[in-house]
Amino acid sequence: MKHNIILIGYMGSGKSTIAKELHRVTGMEVIDADAAIVEEQGRSINEIFQTDGETAFRDLETDLLRRLSERTSDYILSTGGGMPLREENRTILKNLGIVFFLKADTDTIFERIKEDTQRPLLQGTDQRAKIARMLEERTPIYECAADHVIETDGRTVNEIAWEIIHIRAIVKQGIF
Question: Considering only CA atoms, which of 42, 91, 31, 34 is closest in space to residue 58?
Fold first, then answer.
């Protein structure tokens, strides 16, 4: 079994921030899925969505996951919020490592991303309602895809990172 740390969750749930803290503590390489796709494509996620559509972007995510399956060194993967929506991706994610769903409520997420204009699925008005609707749709999928659910509301980055490190250590020992 691979012991990579896979972080999933809705946009603004803390995946990138927690990945950076996990890197600081463990020294493990961080792979930010969205950043990797942007670098490979030479254009922003917004541009990919506008030019090629959401399905094409999701295809790029799946391709990235397939390539990560071939890696042998341990790493931390911070996924995009929509990556686990495809069943194929959920299967690959489970095979890549230990999947942690970073769970946050609507208000927490809204406060974290309300000024961010780089999120194509939240363009327009009434972001809070869009977040609530998408969380309602996606949370059961995230829970299904996850090995462990980590509640992030009201917790520090350090507390969350150490909980993940602790769970990973237990899994590696075969206790969990």
Answer: 34
Return the SS3 of 119.
Answer: coil
pLDDT in tens, 74-115: 999 999 999 999 999 999 999 999 999 999 999 998 888 766
- Residue 127's identity, in one-letter code, is Q
What CATH class does 4-170 carry? Answer: alpha beta
What confidence score (pLDDT) does residue 123 get?
A: 59
Q: What is the CA radius of gyration of the chain?
A: 16
Question: Hey, is 174 helix, strand or coil?
Answer: coil
Q: CA 96 → CA 56, 67, 71, 77, 153, distances in Å?
A: 22, 11, 9, 9, 26
Q: Where are the domains of the chain?
A: 4-170
H helices of the chain, where? 15-26, 33-41, 45-52, 54-68, 87-96, 106-113, 127-145, 157-172
SS3 4: strand
Strands 97-103 and 148-151: parallel
Contact 85/61 with Cβ under 8 angstroms? no
